[in-house]
Design brief:
With 434 residues, this protein is an all-alpha fold. Helix content is 75%, strand content 0%. The protein has 16 helices and no strands. Helix 7 crosses helix 15. The longest helix has 56 residues, at 354-409. The protein is globular.
């Protein structure tokens, strides 16, 4: 490889590595299958119950384990060999999909069974999610992790488009059970690829087998990860930035829908156009974010503040045309910020506690996801769509500015953890620090 290759800022640099190419292909297949199933599942729930509320319930039941079980799932990822964990979790998800397909084909599916299967899927996902994320990091050098995350975001978007489009075709020609079967096969494809993946030199290494097998009480294991997260200032700052941005600045499907159809007197078609521009901006942002090499919490904060100020201006838009101009950079900045934040989250903690940190993050993110829309809805009831966008943007920017001032005057709490094989220590651990 040429000497200049490690310094590349190409958003596609992670694909230089054979393992990452295979992993990206497997993830595309898996994402397409998952979105095919999700689309069909909503239709199936509507067919069984005729209730939109029941559809929302099935989604909530599948998401709920992330709130209650993610800490244990993260501990399992730290405890078990990563490739084995991914292969087993993918195979189990495939088994659930095949079981659902069989029940649908035999006309033995009903709402309680469907909810139970959704809950099982959610529980398995608390292990599968962080394990897959960290396995992807093992396939590229540390400086290429942002590229891997950006490529992953693009693969996710492409898989979503393909899966949603294929859902209608599959159901129309082959039936509902075929969509679940296809998703099961996609999980088995990922499980089959995993044994052939090899970490590269300079990757963010996973714990050594001896460390994974070290005897420790599950409660202590979970507590160690939670303690690390709570006493790591940059991770707490990242959680604060992401949390306030998620509640007051990223629910554009809600705020912009009300703004477009209300004060700006647009219709459903106009909001559809706005949503398309948001999607395009997200893709562009993923490409730009993949160019980052050493993102920090400061980078995430500054990008979030810029996005918040753009949101303020968007809230004051006098017309749809002006809003369209602002929506694209809003989505780009949000996507780049997400890529930077994910890179910090997945590389900052020591290897032996990284899964538990992602478990804590998943639980926190679920709280934001469940609590954000109602809070934002109340704000819009009180201040209207324009007021919510302006007040939310000012609150985000002001909070981040205040946090930067406090950080300059404050100290850093020490975090004492027993070093394990594969951990990053000393100055090297500050490579993605704020």
């Amino acid at each position: 490889m040429p000497p200049s290759a490690p310094a590349s800022r190409s958003p596609w640099r992670s694909l230089r590595h054979r393992g990452m190419r295979w992993w990206s292909a497997a993830n595309f297949v898996s994402n397409a299958g998952t979105w095919m199933q999700l689309t069909v599942q909503n239709l199936l729930v509507l067919h069984i119950t005729g209730s939109a509320a029941a559809t929302g319930l099935s989604i909530s039941v599948q998401a709920a384990p992330a709130l209650f079980v993610s800490l244990l799932g993260g501990a399992a990822v730290d405890r078990w060999p990563r490739k084995l964990t991914v292969a087993v979790s993918q195979a189990l998800l495939g088994l659930v999909a095949f079981t659902t397909a069989l029940l649908v084909a035999l006309d033995r599916i009903d709402m309680p069974v469907l909810l139970a299967l959704a809950a099982v899927t959610g529980i398995i996902a608390t292990v599968d999610g962080p394990a897959c994320a960290l396995l992807g990091n093992d396939l590229v050098p540390r400086e290429d992790v942002p590229s891997a995350i950006g490529v992953g975001a693009l693969v996710h978007s492409a898989g979503r488009l393909a899966g949603t489009a294929l859902a209608g075709v599959t159901v129309g020609f082959l039936g509902t059970a075929a969509a679940y079967t296809a998703n099961g096969l996609s999980f088995l494809f990922v499980a089959a690829v995993v044994p052939f993946l090899r970490p590269v030199h300079g990757a963010v290494a996973e714990p050594a087998p001896e460390a994974s097998a070290a005897p420790a009480a599950p409660e202590m294991s979970v507590r160690e990860g939670l303690r690390y997260f709570l006493r790591r200032p940059r991770l707490m700052a990242l959680a604060g930035i992401t949390g306030i941005s998620s509640v007051f600045g990223r629910n554009y499907g809600l705020t912009l829908a009300v703004l477009v159809t209300g004060p700006l007197a647009g219709g459903a078609g106009s909001f559809g156009t706005v949503s398309t521009v948001l999607a395009i901006g997200g893709i562009l942002g993923a490409v730009l974010g993949a160019r980052l090499r050493n993102p920090s919490v400061r980078t995430v904060g500054l990008l979030a503040a810029v996005g918040a100020l753009l949101q303020v201006v968007a809230g004051l838009s006098p017309s749809l045309a002006v809003l369209m101009v602002l929506v694209l950079p809003m989505a780009v900045v949000e996507s780049v910020s997400d890529t930077a934040g994910t890179a910090v989250l997945q590389t900052d903690p020591p290897a032996h506690v990284r899964g538990r940190v992602l478990g804590v993050w998943s639980s926190i993110g679920t709280v934001w996801g469940l609590g954000g829309p109602p809070l934002l809805g109340l704000l819009m009831e009180w201040a209207g769509a324009r007021g919510a966008l302006v007040a939310g943007g000012l609150l985000i920017a002001g909070s981040i500015g205040a946090g930067l001032l406090v950080r300059r005057r404050g100290g850093v709490l020490p975090v004492t953890l027993t070093a394990r094989d594969g951990d990053v220590t000393g100055r090297e651990a500050l490579g993605t620090a704020a």
